[in-house]
Amino acid sequence: MSHDEGYLRFFVYISFFNTAMLGLVTSSNLIQIYFFWELVGMCSYLLIGLWFTRPIAASACQKAFVTNRVGDFGLLLGILGFFWITGSLEFRDLFKIANNWIPNNGINSLLTTLCAFLLFLGAVAKSAQFPLHVWLPDAMEGPTPISALIHAATMVAAGIFLIARLLPLFISLPLIMSFISLVGTITLFLGANSGFFLGSFRKKLEWNNIDSYRGKSSLLTQTLYLEDRDRGRGKNRNEINKE
User: Fold this and answer.
1) Which of 38, 142, 194, 241 is least buried, going by the fewest C-beta atoms within 10 A?
2) What pTM was computed for the model?
3) Which residues form the signal peptide (predicted)?
């Protein structure tokens, strides 16, 4: 890329992207998460479309931008919903709901489930899970370092990070945990089988990446949900023995 016209822009965008990702993983509340989440999305649009004079690259960055906006809108609605429920955007307040209010029917579980689903929708788009996975295979149109950064290293992992960050909330909502596992399993199956019908080696790598991260999402939720369920059964068993 030493003679590329976008050489300086490349390093500006990639530094901005790394800063946004660092801010995302160190955020302590949902408003910070959303702010850096949007910065990551903007940087990915600029990086995928670095060679915007090529029509296929311009189309790929637009597809990534539009698809991620669907998830980001859901994430914003979920954040506003939980702010209306709790009056706070801090993670500790959300987790207090999960530990105290939801098990005791202290709040409307249907509304809480809907808001949690909207939060998960943001993770679905960012981590390219079904049905918002369509942007990721085309994102290889940027330079190779960008493809590695977006596909293998950070951006698609941001969606899995959000799921893991909100697991104390999700795990108190069995319907959401089941839905996360279902979406992860469908995407896992889709990614594992789509590679058989593609002739391009790069396309096979893209679908393999979709497959691996969605497998992590499904495995993460299923494992922790089963552990929490077994812990609850053990607690009930101890209470019965005491009686």
Assistant:
1) 241
2) 0.82
3) none
